[in-house]
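Researcher: We plan to redesign the surface later, but first we want a full-length starting point. Tokens attached.
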């Protein structure tokens, strides 16, 4: 069996000095993915008229607070929101371009659909 290629060796970093940051990045990535899924579900429910105005307001505020907390947690661990958008190779990036954070390389090209409109 041959030795692992340079690209494969770069994917697995086991540096004890960065294990906490790497774990925080993984956890925050999963939380951001779930936040985006919740946001899409909320927009879908708003578009269908399933929510009252009060519920829409509450969901919107909750999602904004969660976004702020995510940014604070990233700052605390020396990360940017764009760092959470993992490159999945030929599949593209993990996080949705429609909700990709500012400065993320996953922005949609001009004129292309980027998912449901924000409210």
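Model: Full-length starting sequence:
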């Amino acid at each position: 069996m041959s030795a692992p290629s340079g690209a494969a060796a770069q994917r697995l970093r086991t540096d004890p000095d960065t294990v906490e940051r790497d774990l925080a990045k993984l956890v925050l990535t999963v939380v951001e993915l779930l936040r985006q899924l919740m946001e899409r579900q909320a927009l879908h429910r708003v578009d269908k008229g399933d929510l009252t105005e009060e519920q829409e307001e509450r969901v919107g505020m909750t999602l904004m607070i969660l976004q702020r907390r995510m940014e604070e947690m990233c700052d605390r661990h020396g990360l940017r929101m764009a760092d959470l958008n993992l490159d999945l190779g030929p599949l593209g990036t993990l996080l949705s371009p429609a909700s990709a954070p500012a400065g993320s390389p996953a922005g949609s090209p001009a004129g292309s659909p980027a998912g449901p409109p924000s409210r």
